[in-house]
Amino acid sequence: MPVTQEQATWFADAFQKLIANVDKAIVGKDHVIRLVLTALVSDGHVLLEDFPGTGKTVLAKALANTLDGTTSRIQFTPDLLPSDVTGVQIFDQSKGKFEFHKGPIFASIVLADEINRASPKTQSALLEVMEEGVVTIDGEGHPVGAPFLVIATQNPVEQAGTYKLPEAQLDRFLIKTTLGYPDSKIAVALLMDSSTRARASLVSPIIKPEAIVAMAALAAEVFVDESVMNYLNDIVEATRKNRDVVLGVSMRGAMALARAIKTWALTQGRTYATPDDVRDLAVAVLAHRIILDPESEFAGVKAEDIVSRILVDIEPPAYRAA
């Protein structure tokens, strides 16, 4: 069923209120907040990679506090077991049978802090649940429910004792982004308010999980013209043909971008997606899915720059309203 203009306006207003609420904790990072919320509504997950102390955990906590649902935080360490994430079967002597005790992955918003510090086996357990939305124990599936968003964080420094996420596994994340340091004006304002240490506590719940599910269903119905999808596909194919790339964006990545642009269009109050939506999201959704040639990577080539150049080289289709 096509999205009406009234529904699009409601969506955009609700989305803006969510951004404003999270902004109480993470000041001046509206674009990053918009990206994370887009992943939430698009049934995706987010990888935040940034230097220590830039507010990655605060952003995740603030988003969790915005949603009046269940939240959990998993501090990843080398000794963390898969069952510490997913849950475990425990024998109940009084009932004479095993019962499943849910792990912290069973929450609406899951903060996976410093995911690169966990062993590959534990990382795989988390990433499998992210993809399937189900925890399978002894052949029995346990759905994690909806909405379900994993916000994983990792530091690009202090690599001793860490386990780098395999490039193929990065494909499980809809969006990869960074917060970066605030500009001077915002930094001074934060310093003046330095007595407020738990900034995420400033954020209170303003939306029910059911409303997020309704927003996701609405976003799925946004109209996308075939010319826009052709443009998106041309960009994806160009990543596979680039001389600095060993492995380009997969079909999973292309479909992830196709879902995300529908949500992005609604955040602008439109009932249809445009080439600009593709351009706005291409780097955040596609760059981390690209595997660079080792020599090119050593020479300083970055996947983000490759996607940006492709956007310059490929001409978008002429604008046409639905």
Summarize the topology.
Elements: H1 5-22, H2 30-41, E1 46-49, H3 56-66, E2 71-75, H4 82-86, E3 87-92, E4 97-102, E5 109-113, H5 120-132, E6 134-137, E7 140-143, E8 149-154, H6 167-170, E9 175-177, H7 184-192, H8 209-219, H9 226-241, E10 245-247, H10 251-267, H11 275-286, E11 291-292, H12 294-298, H13 303-313
Parallel strand pairs: 1-8, 1-9, 2-5, 5-8
Antiparallel strand pairs: 3-4, 6-7, 10-11
Helix pairs in contact: 1-2, 9-10, 10-11, 11-13
Keywords:
Rossmann fold, 322 residues, alpha/beta, Helicase, Ruva Protein, domain 3
Strand order of the biggest β-sheet:
2-5-8-1-9
| Fraction in helix | 40-55%
- Low-confidence region ranges: none
In what range is the share of β-strand residues?
Answer: 5-15%
Which H/E pattern describes the elements? HHEHEHEEEHEEEHEHHHEHHEHH
> How many beta strands in the DSSP annotation?
11
Q: What is the CATH architecture annotation of the largest domain?
A: 3-Layer(aba) Sandwich
Quickly give the structural class.
alpha/beta
Distance between the termini: 14 Å
User: What is the number of domains?
Assistant: 2
Report the sheet with the most strands, covering strand number, pairing sense and barrel closure.
5 strands, parallel
Task: Determine the number of helices (DSSP H or I, runs of at least 4 residues).
Answer: 13
Radius of gyration: 20 Å
CATH topological fold name of the largest domain: Rossmann fold
Q: Say which CATH homologous superfamily of the largest domain is assigned.
A: P-loop containing nucleotide triphosphate hydrolases
